[in-house]
Amino acid sequence: MHRDPDEPNIESMARAWWVTGAGKGEILETPLATSVEKDKEELVKVQALYSGISRGTESLVFHGRVPKSEYAAMRAPFQEGDFPWPVKYGYASVGKVVEGPAELVGQTVFCLYPHQNCYRVPASALTPLPKDLPAERAILAANMETAVNGLWDGAPAVGDRIAVVGLGVVGLLVAWLASRIPGARVTAIDTNPERQAVAEQLGLTFSSESAPDDHDLVIHASGHPSGLETALGLAGQEATIVEMSWYGDQLVSAPLGAAFHPRRLTLKSSQVGQIVPSRVPRWDYRKRLALALELLQDDALDVLITGECKFDDLPKSMARILIDGRDSLCHRVVY
């Protein structure tokens, strides 16, 4: 059978989720990459199994709230299109290698790729999963990377009194990691009482109140300006507050009066796009991601995945997941 040369080859096309307007999205036919000009590295084809929705960042993208000044900085590794839209965005894909080097074919891998049913990427963009890590849980890898980077920025020590304000996926992972530091006293704080059960399943001490205390380190991950005020109030003399929230184009009022100067507090930003400078001589992005995957090998972390939908349902489900899902944590997309 002769094929029209202008007709798309089904083998060279994929189906991907695109944000097409404010609060709108579609699954569209998208060409698969066929070459990498920059380094001529061999491309590997991956069949997606699962992807994770990063509710905080993807909500800002979905509603067109990425500031123009941050368009370049906020590009995901394999993003297509430009902000505000149409744009193909996401960075938590788990799949199986179906074409490529013999040593990779058949392996289950993590990739910082958007929501797409199959894709071709350089082999260096893939990280094989540890043997004991279920693919269903590996979608948390990008969140775990963010949590690791946040703790690197905070540099907690043995015996520290640590407060984590805001118990989304990242905040819970930060608190869970911090609780494993010998002698550390970790308090997980959120105004949403629904977070208590999750926190306690992770072995954390939960509080819905924020009485002032003498914390050595406070990490803010709520995404709300009021949470930053709470975090500042929890910090003790010479303490550090790590701001992990990203507000997009939202203006934030930081209460830097009262005890901020007398207590000589340090307010520090943390962003996963850059490795903590003190770690750069010894760590790179690939090593950090491999560490994140290793740290996910604990069955207790399954509690962070609270919803699931089929890939084909994203056009009708995404708004509900991002807008109405106050009590949800990570949402898993199944291919």
Describe the structure.
The chain is α/β, with parallel strands linked by helices and 335 residues long. The chain is 21% helix and 28% strand. α4 links the parallel β11 (185-189) and β12 (205-207).
Write the layout of secondary structure elements.
Blueprint: E1 13-21, E2 24-31, E3 43-53, H1 55-62, E4 80-81, E5 87-88, E6 93-99, E7 108-111, E8 118-122, E9 127-128, H2 141-154, E10 161-165, H3 169-178, E11 185-189, H4 195-201, E12 205-207, E13 215-220, H5 225-234, E14 235-243, E15 266-269, H6 285-295, E16 305-310, H7 314-323, E17 330-334
Parallel strand pairs: 10-11, 10-13, 11-12, 13-14, 14-15, 16-17
Antiparallel strand pairs: 1-2, 3-6, 3-8, 3-17, 4-5, 6-7, 7-9
Helix pairs in contact: 1-7, 2-3, 2-6
Which key phrases capture this entry?
globular, seven-stranded mixed beta sheet, six-stranded parallel beta sheet, single chain, 7 helices, 335 residues, alpha/beta
Element pattern in H and E: EEEHEEEEEEHEHEHEEHEEHEHE
Discrete helix count: 7
Unreliable residue runs: 1-10
Structural class: alpha/beta
Strand content: 25-35%
What shape does the CA trace take?
globular
CA distance, first residue to last residue: 31 Å
The average pLDDT score comes to 93
Radius of gyration computed on alpha carbons: 21 Å
Percentage of residues assigned to helices: 10-25%
The largest pleated sheet is described as: 7 strands, mixed
- Strand segment count: 17
